[in-house]
Amino acid sequence: MGVHRFIGTSARDAMRQVRESLGDEALILSNRQVEGGVEIVAMLDADQESLTGQPAEPAPPEPVAPTPDPMPASSSAAVTAPQETQAFSARLMDEFAAMRDLLDARLSTPTAPEEKATPATRLRQRMIGVGFSQTLVRELIALLPAEFADTADEDIDEALNGWISRQLAARLETLETDSDLLAEGGVMALIGPTGVGKTTTTAKLASRYVMAHGNRDAALITTDSYRIGAQEQLRIYARLLGVEVHALEGDGDLGALLARLMTPRRALLQMQRATPKRTILIDTLGMSQRDPRLATEVARLGEAGVPIATLLVLDAASHGDTLEQVVAAYQQAADRAGTPIRGCIITKLDESARPATVLDILARHRLQVLFVANGQRVPEDLAAVDVAALVHEALSVDSASPFGYDAATLAEMAGQTRQSKAHALSRDVVSHGRALHAMFDTLARRAPGTPLLEQLWAHGLSNAPGESFAAHMAARSPLTVAPNEEHALWWSKEKGSRQQDWSMPLVSLDDHGLPLPQTWLRHRLPTSEAERMRWARETHQSAWHLMAALPQIDEMHRLAADRQLWMSAATASRRVRYQGERQRLADLAGLAAEINQRQCRWRARPVNMVLSCLPALYETRGSGDPVEVLVWFARLHDVDDNRVLAQRYWLSNAVTGRDVASRLARAVALEGLEGLTRQAMRRLEESGVARSDRETRLQLASGLAALATRLELCSEDWAMDVRAQLFNLSGGTRRRTGTVLLEALMQAFTARDALMDAREARS
């Protein structure tokens, strides 16, 4: 039985020992103050079944002398003495039984309102209080980043609000900023239930078009022959705008009318100087989502013989269940008619007490929001979508409502039902599909090169014979980076580990030194160093370089002339000329002036890096003039007890305006990238991905390793959100390490493939 006892000078020190020995999945059995510090008793989560089973009747223990308790502070390993083990096990069994009774009691008792609310409870209260559905709330709770558990009470609400806003914004699809739906032209039909404002919205859209493009090539059509005054209302708007309007009876031929408007006869063109109608708006008959004639009415659009974009109009003041039925009914009818819904227009936002309801519907159904209407005025009360403003308005309403739930009720609901992780993962496959969609969209924006990784994965799954896909990708265009940002290359060792018969590809880095999932197969590049560096400048357009081996003297001079920064790892025995003498770097470390201290990650753990520097000259035999370099010395310290864990040395050129310190902090973290690529290669080989294309497998493995490392190192909000989504999908440990994130990424790719296959099979 793997029961361990740890003693530290503080609770933090003891917990550090637990994490180092057992990992983040350790089950804490007890903790208490003892002489010399804090004692924690822990075991692996997987070993707890041995305590709850039915063990054989143990032989009675031999009498033993009393053992001093507590254990001396110097002992931090498992108890090993036989007598102590028996006494300790007996005490442990009693403590575990008491803990099990306590857990059973808590699982069967609703959470008391006065208990400290967890981040999940706070999120539930916040979102359901303003009108979001339990379906979406449950989905977001599963994605809550683990970092929120350590957030201070005074900061948690603000942090949660920011996270909720980002999650909602990521799930709301809008038009591109430079896109104009009306300018695209064509035929657009507004569909939706009665009373949602289709006629008024049609007039607003027509006004918007006329003001931007004139009225000569626009026309309006109404198919509403049931509602009294509907046709006359649209005629009034058309007369004011100076556009044609046509009323179509219930049995009228929509296709013939559209054909006449879009392709008038040549003679008519010459006599009346008429032009084909470029934009035609159709105000359709409003029908209840439960009306059996709905499918027939929408089918008229599909039978017109002309491509028609259907725009679903949703009333923001409607109840959530009503909107759910409306979307389901109209989506089904539009799909059957062959005119899938192009997007949605939200109306009556000014009348809605809970705007969150309609945003919830749009987010869960992935419906694009085209416009927002918040009043009756034509055309003023129709605006482009401001996602941030919509989300802010939804979260800003007063949560007090006789139709909602107070905090105590929500906490009670959260405490009464507890389900297994496996059941939670399998309960709503659609919600995981939405989460995956949002996650890959985020990665495409924040980690340039992710779409290339998706192509490599898809090709690897196909295992298609023929020329290497990686060879085809070798000629691709360089990365597209944001304005005023530069990217670089990480050059690993040429030959790599003895355990592998491949060379680590080059890895692209962003301006901050974080790896990007776009890598370059080394054997596909020019053979000479000079030609490779020329390729880096001209094709990759790299502005600086992080190297595992020093470049040649000639290349150092060339890089200095181009004002390109290079940084290279060096050994302690490397010699440079300092104050006229050739000296080893290890002997110069004590002479360097400290210039920077910062926290970074090394071997999947946070460390403090103390950085110092001194100028020197680097030369080799027969190389001619020496090169002026900066020698960098780094000591990596444990964040808890400040002991020195490792020493690192680098050489770089002196380029003004370059932040070397932060990039060297990244260099420490990138030391594990090659090992992570080896793990990815093994996993891909085991799973059969790119079985027949080893080059593709290597490039895919290095890209996955780079992306996992980027997610581990990045501290921005988007990375925290993606990590939470990956951890939720994998259902395993939430340790922020490259290995865990690599495994979770591969599961994410696999899960997305499975969801796509299921969707295709269903269709």
From TrEMBL:
Gene3D superfamilies: P-loop containing nucleotide triphosphate hydrolases. Residues 51-79 are annotated as: Disordered. SUPFAM superfamilies: P-loop containing nucleoside triphosphate hydrolases. Residues 184-377 form the AAA+ ATPase domain. Residues 185-396 form the SRP54-type proteins GTP-binding domain. CDD domains: FlhF. GO terms for biological process: bacterial-type flagellum organization; protein transport; SRP-dependent cotranslational protein targeting to membrane. It is found in: Cell membrane. It is a peripheral membrane protein. GO terms for cellular component: plasma membrane. Pfam families: SRP54 (PF00448). SMART domains: AAA (SM00382), SRP54 (SM00962). It comes from the Bacteria. One of its GO terms (molecular function) is signal recognition particle binding. Its main location: membrane. Keywords: Bacterial flagellum biogenesis, Bacterial flagellum protein export, Cell membrane, Cell projection, Cilium, Flagellum, GTP-binding, Membrane, Nucleotide-binding, Protein transport, Transport. Residues 57-71 have a biased composition (Pro residues). Necessary for flagellar biosynthesis. May be involved in translocation of the flagellum. Belongs to the GTP-binding SRP family. NCBIfam families: FlhF. This is Flagellar biosynthesis protein FlhF. It comes from Kushneria konosiri. The lineage of its organism: Bacteria, Pseudomonadati, Pseudomonadota, Gammaproteobacteria, Oceanospirillales.
